[in-house]
Design goal:
The complex is a heterodimer of chains A (114) and B (114). By secondary structure, chain A is mostly beta strands. Chain A is 0% helix and 54% strand. In chain A, strands 2, 5, 6, 10, 11 and 12 form a 6-stranded mixed β-sheet that branches. In chain A, strands 3-9-8-7 form a 4-stranded antiparallel β-sheet, with no helix packed on it. A two-stranded antiparallel sheet of chain A has the order 1-4. In chain A, a hairpin with a 6-residue loop joins strand 10 and strand 11. With 114 residues, chain B is mainly beta. Classes of the chains: A mainly beta (114), B mainly beta (114).
Chain lengths: 114, 114
Amino acid sequence: AQKVTQAQTEISVVEKEDVTLDCVYETRDTTYYLFWYKQPPSGELVFLIRRNSFDEQNEISGRYSWNFQKSTSSFNFTITASQVVDSAVYFCALSESNNNDMRFGAGTRLTVKP
Amino acid sequence: DVKVTQSSRYLVKRTGEKVFLECVQDMDHENMFWYRQDPGLGLRLIYFSYDVKMKEKGDIPEGYSVSREKKERFSLILESASTNQTSMYLCASIRGGNPNQPQHFGDGTRLSIL
């Protein structure tokens, strides 16, 4: 079965600092999909990005960027110039092509202090 | 927009009670999921369903059962609630056959068993 590891339990930064959230995954499937979700204090999980295993192109969306490297089985998430509103728990997740059940990492709690 | 609605945001029950958590989605999705979220453990899959009256065990099904009598509704049942089932419960849905799509989540139910 697939597995996702987020080794960083909690990260605390000061506003405007850059921060990278790590995600390492395991799968035997050659086709799979990686996701990042944000969970603000309100509790609802908000989808941020999806990556297909056959597309290693990195992506940037405003202050957010994602670095997908199949060679190291990693899908890291960087926030540039962090803001207080970025404070949340962030989850990395993986689904395989032959099933619909997604597996999540333990999450990283990011606190951005003013 | 997909809407996944969980019947309660907060619920307090007593040990030994039978507890029902309800989830309804409005986008005709085939697949529905129940997770529990605990600090440091992330989201763990309890049960999922691919279709009406069908169910599959996830990683931690012990102490839980589910019911899917209608496509839009997926219920999680705690047959005899215990204190170790105090947790945040999240419901999600996705269209069938689409592991590359993000799951849509409800707001969560924070359940306390006294």
